[in-house]
Amino acid sequence: MSAQSAPALTDDCVQPFLIDASGVNGRLVRLGGAIDGILARHSYPDPVKRLLGEFLALGAGLATTLKYDGVFTLQTKGDGPVPMMVADVTSEGAVRGFAQVTGETPASEAIGDAPVPRLLGEGYLAFTVDQGGDMDRYQGVVELSGATLEDCVHHYFEQSEQFSSAIKLSAGTGRDGSWRAACLSVQRLPDEGGTGAQAREETEDDWRRAVTLMATAKEAELLDPDLTPDQLLFRLFHEDGVRVFEPRALDDRCRCSRERSGRMLIALGREELSDLKFDDGTVEVTCQFCNRSERFTDADLDVVEAEVAREAAEEEKTQ
């Protein structure tokens, strides 16, 4: 294995790699402290934490295969006891996510190897890239089809003509009880044509071999904090030669702020807020992602409303 002078990132990162023999490229996402911090802020049952951990690793893995400047969002909606999950990753590597739990979740033994139908139910999985401003939003939607998140994503890629991809996900607790998650993926671009039947067959054989080797990764290996990404990739692909490139850091960072919360309340309207006030006259906003709460008095809202009005007046002058 060779590496191009990269920082020694072994956790909370995405490690890109290339399999020399086939030209297949891939990503290895390792989440440690970041995922543990996200899950620790919520009192989800363990099966939900495990599924959300996989979901966040999946979001990071998919996001880093794209070139974008903004936010990549992965979202599920279903009719199960977990009707919604959301994970988003900014182009700067900030990761956040949450699960909405509205019903009683089955015990781990009852969920078994089918967390999607038993937790999420019937519904859909959506991918969105939002680059803000006047840039077009890209969105892909696929039915929640299969027993696991891996099944659902593979179903999406089977319908996509952009590229082939295979993914392996894992999440669980380490020896110290902290949560960890991982996503290992390999991708190939579509055949552009112009090659002979033998060449196409060899390419297909290379792809099947890469997927087979990836599938041999064990959960213990994917989640082992003492096994670096370099070591794991060498263990899996060394017979075909594997190169690693500069890893990208990921971190647990929510984008909420007191200013955004205040503006959201003003957008609701002061009359609407009157029904949401506590006995002391304040109104509270809690971020679904990081679980942080902000309280506002009427005087606080007056300040926010005046600022919104001032900005609107300035914008009108420039038009």
TrEMBL record:
GO terms for cellular component: cytoplasm. Pfam families: HSP33 (PF01430). Keywords: Chaperone, Cytoplasm, Disulfide bond, Redox-active center, Zinc. The lineage of its organism: Bacteria, Pseudomonadati, Pseudomonadota, Alphaproteobacteria, Rhodospirillales. Signal peptide: none annotated. One of its GO terms (molecular function) is protein folding chaperone. This is Hsp33 family molecular chaperone HslO. GO terms for biological process: protein refolding.
